[in-house]
Amino acid sequence: xxxxxxxxxxTVFQQEISEEMSISTSNWPAxxxxxxxxxxxxxxxxx
Length: 47
Known about the structure:
- The protein is mainly beta.
- The chain has strands spanning 2-6, 11-15, 33-39, 42-46.
């Protein structure tokens, strides 16, 4: 699962992981986002 959050913690994107996955951010407001990647028993957050 890939999840993207804005700085106030709102989920702006959520999708199951696939081999050829892409995330279009062109319609998102400018700013910083956090990406969380969850796979099996591993979770990584990328600021």
